Amino acid sequence: MRRDNTPIAIAEGEAPETQLLLAAENALLRTRLRDSESRLRDFLDIAADWIWETDENHRFTMISEKGLEVMGYSPGQVVGLLAIILYGGDPEVPFWRRHLADLEAHRPIRDFVYPFVDGQRRRHFFRVNANPVHDEEGRFQGYRGTGTDITASMDAQAEADRNATLLRATFDTVAEGITIVDRTLRVINFNQRFLELLEFPENHFLMGDPFEKFVRYNAERGEYGPGDVEEQVASRLARARDMAPHRFTRVRPNGTALEITGTPLPDGGFVTIYTDITERHQAAEKLRASEQRFRDFAEISADWFWETDMAQRYTYVSFRTMSGPFGHMGWSQQSLIGQTRNELLDKIGVSKQFAETVSRYMEREEAFQELEYSFLSKTGERIWVQAAGTPIRDAEGRVVGYRGVGRDITARKLAEQAVLASEHRYRVISELTSDLVYSYLVSPDGKAEMEWATGLLGGAHAPVLDPTVTDTWWGKHAHPDDLPLLRQRKQRLMEGEAVKEEFRLVDPDGGLRWVSVYTRPEVDPDSGRVVRIIGGAQDITERKLAEQALQQSQERYAMVLASSNEGVWEWMASQGDVLFISPRFREVAGMEGNPAVVPRDHWMERIHPEDLARYGDRWEEHWRGAVDHYACEYRVRGDDNSYRWVFDRGSSLRNSQGAYRMVGSLTDITARKRTELQLYEAKERAETANRAKSDFLANMSHELRTPLNAVIGFSEILRDELFGPLGDARYKDYVKDIGESGAHLLRIINDILDLSKAEAGKIELIEEVMLVEEIVASCCRLLSTRAEESAVTIMPSTQPGLPPLRADRQRLKQILLNLVSNAIKFTPRDGKVYVEALLEDGCILLRVTDTGIGMSDENLVKAMQPFTQIDSSLQRRYTGTGLGLPLTKSLVERHGGELKLTSFPGKGTVADVRFPADRTASLPS
Fold this sequence. Notes:
This protein is an alpha+beta fold and 925 residues long. The chain has 29 helices and 34 strands.
């Protein structure tokens, strides 16, 4: 044999005895080498899931069966394949680029974790470790490494992360600091806890301050570490403007660890939650340090190796480190050989369950992974051990023993327990934030004694927990109908299940209240027995009453909606451009069948072509937010091809992109539209008749004025006796009557013509700026004679400094003359007529007030109608055509003003003419 323990080659010509001796020695060495290689491969298979090798071009030259099995490949599919192709990597992804850079630099690969999707579309996570291989001259030959399937632990970690997120969400308003920043990076809200966690001055920051103010304050006091303040501020503001979700941990200079979570808002801006995770961070750091030690141990395979026969008797033991039971008990390698696993575990007090579990694997000739057991050391400290093993087969394939590894996982277990304890406390606090919190100690016989209680459900007669529980925790106060529920709840608790229930309590004074109770049992890990019950109760009576009221309201709403004449529809942007419709909607629209969803394109095809553009415009206006509510009337075609009028209306919820959900109703308005059409046609006929009447009156007035002018002119010639005396004196009286009657008839015809022009909108105003007091004085002078004849006193008054008025002088006089003459006409003897001009709210007001007979509200309406007399008695007593007030109203409105009459029977009438402020002119400077 050579010095390097390789078999010696047999030289030709050597003696047969020598050749036989050397052949036997070579055969023995090959057997030992094969056993050593088999042992090494078994250890590696246990320490990692599979082993592999690549060449200098990173193509696979070998991968163990476990790796092929996990990834679902055959050897022929893998050998010669690039590693990144097999892994399904993407060179464009940053962590793959870093990995490829390590490969090109021939650096060792440590704990490279990557996702892998197998042929059945299941996702895995693999961890790879490898060392580069060089030949004797230092040339790179490839990589040799191991692979481990860590999918379960990664999924568990993801689940733990999700649970942590839920826990934080339930405790936001109590333990976390919160800030809300809008799209312009202004802090529109924050809570007191935020100021406490960041140690901000109490009154230094206000709602609405720019986010930059907070960042700059932190940078200036060194919160972000050493560096240029402006660069730190600019960098953080740039990240904030991205409005991207983020979560990270920041350790403040005082050692406090904050977890900062930012969530974008739909309309821009973001909500940031600051959580004090100092204890968890420290525990995580300890756990991280412990896991690093564990990884270091794993990189050198394990703490110890072992082999047993099928009776679990140790035949081989090798220590990497003196830990676990060997280190704590002081056992040596020689003292372990020949002893059984059961004997050794009995000495340190390990439950027989572990050895029995290993025996069952051996009976099935299966490998086992990550079996754990624990024991108490001489100092009373609990030691945790993890073991893994695989069958040893002889040349015929029979299992003759087991080979495995062991690891001391005490440090990892302690860290995990610390994290679980911290999470347990956090969960208990968050779930038990209640009006009443309590704890019961549970004895082995199932009885429960109160350990402590704090808080009160409230009220002068609040129920008190029993110090000793025999039936149910709330049996003394529970509503009789809820006792079966509480008994079932107690059974579930004693079986180790956390329970949350809502039930009713009866107060000592007979009052009824609802409570929500969350209860969690604590289970002894060794005995599996429930040793403590911790619970929290919250009074939810108001919520229950509100829920009942809401349910009743919803039921009433559903009944009203079901009996209404409206069809209901809903549109949601996330569900596509479709309408969700009710059965009544289908009836209103004349749709057959029972479709619950209608594409909006299909609905628009049913809309009358003349109404389609209006429908689209109204929908778009509301979707953009131009109008608060959507409403449109249009015609829609039913399945019978007939059109019916509908009124479509709705409102929406919206975000920055517009409306994302709209709810509305469809009402059949066909009958109303038919009535409107009939009314419109009747109105058109009436307006046509009115225009014909006005045209007729205008024509007749023009035709009558020509002969009347001749009558008046000739009567004046006869009256003045221009061509000689008439003779009998009675002729003069007759001629005078003819002239006055003709003049009166001409005034009536002029009023009719003016009214016809006003109704046709053909009166043209010749506007000028004039002094109102002059107009008032002129009109009062013109009517003074008539007033004297009626024994009525006219009393004009004008407000001093009254500004000028822009109006048609002739029409203004006509307005005032009509009102004052009417007042004189209907005022008894010795009465008074007041004519005022004043400025009120920037508007010039002409007011005519009389002490006459007055009118009722009904007669006021009649007085404003053309050709209308109030009643027959008045018509006999007072002359007139009934055109004065309607004509006056038309002339006032032509000036943009308003005529208002106020009257009381027997007390008189007030006529107000108010001109708009824009007709009030400025006084000359």
